[in-house]
Structure to design on (475 residues):
C-alpha cells in the first residue's frame, strides 16, 4: 500500500519540479535554488522543460551562402539557402543535425560549433575540388515581406578558409 | 485534503491495456531509427560527432571515450537499441542504452542535439519504467512461449505522464512565442517561417496568394499551444461522459477533444510538408497514441480490454 503513496508523491514532485524548471516567468535565482538538489538529473539526461519552436518568427532573417575561389581567382557561389541553382551540399546542409551547427538563433547569434563546422565543410570542398583555393561563408540579411524573402544586400558573419597546400 | 490525496493516489494507480504505450514505443523508435539511418546514409556520423579534423564535434571525455568507443560505434549501438525498442526486444534495457548513447552523442555535438532529441530521451525514460513491451513485442512473445505471459493490463501512469509532457511541450512552446509576429495585428509568424530559406521546403512564391490562410493558421497555432492544458479537461470529460454536467455534455457532444487532436495532427503535418525540420513533426505525432482514451485505441486495435481499472 505504501508503494502507491510513494509513487504518487514521486510523480507529484516530478511534475512540480518540471513546472518550476519550465516556468516562463524569469525567476532564475528561485529556480536554481529549488532545482539544485535534482539538477544532476536534467544535466545527466540532457533535458529541460522550457520548450521553444520558432519563438523568433520575425521577418528579419539570414540566408547562408558558400563561395569558392579558384587558383585563377574565379569566384563562384556553390550554395545559397533556398536557391535551387546553387544547391551543392544541400543534402548535408538541410539535415537537421548539421543545420544546428550553422543556423543563427533568434537573436542572430551563430552556434558555438559554427567555426568548427565551416572548417570541416571547407576541408570537404577542398578534398573534392582541387581547383579551389579558398572557401568563404557568409550570410545575407533578408527581410520577409508578405511571405517573400528579399535580400537586403548586407552581408555578415564572413568566414574564410584557405587551402594550406596547393 | 485526505480526499484529494486519495484521489491523486488512485489516479496514478490505474491500470489499462498496454496498447497505447506499445504504439508510442513503436512509433517513437521508428522515428528515431529513420533519423539515425539518414545520418548514416549521408555519411555524416563522423562529421557531426567527431572533433576536428574528422568533423565539427567537440572534444568530450565521457564514458564512451573511456571505453574507446568511436562515434561510429556509438551510432551503431544507437541503431541497434532503437531497433530493439521498435521490436520490443529487451525493451527496458534498450531504452536505457539508447538514452545513455543519445546523451553521449549530445555532449559530443551540442549544437546538433535539438529539442526533439531531448523530448525523445524523456519519452524513452518514461517508457523504460513502463510496461510498453506487454504488447506487440518480442519480449511478450518470448514470455508467452515460456508460459509466463506478460499481463496485457499495465499501469497507466506512464501514459498519463506522456500525455502531460505533450500538453506541457505545447503550452511552453506557446508561452515562449513572444515575437510580435505571433500576435495581432499581422499574425505573420507562419508566413515568415515558411519563407525562411533555411527551413522552407518549397519556393515561397505560393505564400503571396496563401497569406490570409497563413495568418489564420498562425492565430490557430498560438491559440492551440497556449490553451493546450484544456485538453486535460476535455480528456476528463470524455472519460467521465456518463456523469452529469452541462459543460461535460457540451464538450462531448461537439467532440471538442477530437477537434483539438485534429488541429494538432494538421499542425504537425503542415510542418512536415512545408518545412524541412527533420523528425520533429513525426516525433511529436508518435506520442499521440498517449492522448487517446483506452477505449479508442481498443476500437482501433480490436482489443476487448478498454476501460481503465
Amino acid at each position: 500500500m505504501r508503494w502507491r503513496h510513494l509513487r504518487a508523491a514521486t510523480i507529484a514532485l516530478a511534475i512540480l519540479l518540471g513546472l518550476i524548471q519550465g516556468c516562463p516567468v524569469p525567476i532564475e535565482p528561485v529556480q536554481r535554488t529549488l532545482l539544485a538538489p535534482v539538477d544532476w538529473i536534467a544535466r545527466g539526461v540532457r533535458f529541460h522543460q522550457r520548450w521553444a519552436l520558432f519563438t523568433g518568427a520575425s521577418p528579419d532573417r539570414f540566408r547562408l551562402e558558400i563561395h569558392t575561389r579558384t587558383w585563377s581567382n574565379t569566384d563562384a557561389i556553390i550554395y545559397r539557402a533556398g536557391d535551387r541553382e546553387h544547391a551543392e551540399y544541400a543534402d548535408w546542409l538541410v539535415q537537421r543535425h548539421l543545420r544546428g551547427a550553422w543556423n543563427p538563433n533568434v537573436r542572430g547569434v551563430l552556434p558555438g560549433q559554427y567555426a568548427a563546422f565551416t572548417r570541416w565543410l571547407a576541408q570537404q570542398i577542398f578534398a573534392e575540388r582541387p581547383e579551389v583555393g579558398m572557401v568563404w561563408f557568409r550570410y545575407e540579411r533578408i527581410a520577409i515581406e508578405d511571405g517573400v524573402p528579399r535580400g537586403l544586400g548586407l552581408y555578415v558573419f564572413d568566414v574564410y578558409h584557405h587551402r594550406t597546400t596547393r | 485534503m485526505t480526499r484529494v490525496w486519495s484521489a491523486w493516489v488512485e489516479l496514478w494507480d490505474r491500470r489499462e491495456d498496454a496498447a497505447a504505450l506499445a504504439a508510442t514505443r513503436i512509433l517513437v523508435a521508428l522515428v528515431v531509427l529513420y533519423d539515425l539511418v539518414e545520418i548514416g546514409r549521408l555519411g555524416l556520423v563522423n562529421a557531426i560527432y567527431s572533433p576536428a579534423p574528422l568533423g565539427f564535434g567537440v572534444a568530450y571525455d565521457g564514458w564512451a571515450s573511456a571505453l574507446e568507443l568511436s562515434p561510429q560505434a556509438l551510432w551503431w549501438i544507437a541503431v541497434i537499441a532503437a531497433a530493439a525498442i521498435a521490436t520490443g526486444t529487451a525493451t527496458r534495457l534498450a531504452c536505457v542504452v539508447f538514452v545513455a548513447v543519445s546523451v553521449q552523442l549530445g555532449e559530443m555535438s551540442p549544437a546538433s542535439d535539438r529539442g526533439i532529441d531531448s523530448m525523445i530521451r524523456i519519452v524513452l525514460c518514461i517508457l523504460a519504467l513502463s510496461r510498453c513491451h506487454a504488447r506487440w513485442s518480442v519480449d511478450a512473445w518470448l514470455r508467452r512461449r515460456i508460459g509466463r505471459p506478460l499481463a496485457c493490463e499495465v499501469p497507466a501512469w506512464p501514459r498519463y505522464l506522456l500525455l502531460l509532457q505533450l500538453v506541457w511541450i505545447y503550452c511552453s512552446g506557446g508561452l515562449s512565442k513572444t515575437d510580435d509576429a505571433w500576435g495581432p495585428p499581422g499574425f505573420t509568424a507562419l508566413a515568415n517561417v515558411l519563407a525562411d530559406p533555411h527551413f522552407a521546403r518549397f519556393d515561397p512564391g505560393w505564400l503571396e496568394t496563401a497569406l490570409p490562410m497563413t495568418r489564420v493558421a498562425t492565430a490557430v497555432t498560438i491559440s492551440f499551444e497556449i490553451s493546450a492544458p484544456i485538453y486535460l479537461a476535455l480528456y476528463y470529460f470524455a472519460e467521465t461522459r456518463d456523469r452529469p454536467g452541462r459543460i461535460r455534455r457540451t464538450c462531448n457532444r461537439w467532440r471538442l477533444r477530437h477537434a483539438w487532436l485534429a488541429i494538432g495532427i494538421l499542425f504537425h503535418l503542415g510542418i512536415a510538408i512545408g518545412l524541412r525540420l527533420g523528425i520533429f513533426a513525426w516525433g511529436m505525432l508518435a506520442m499521440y497514441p498517449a492522448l487517446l482514451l483506452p477505449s479508442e485505441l481498443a476500437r482501433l486495435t480490436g482489443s476487448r480490454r478498454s476501460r481503465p481499472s
The longest strand of chain A covers residues 148-162.
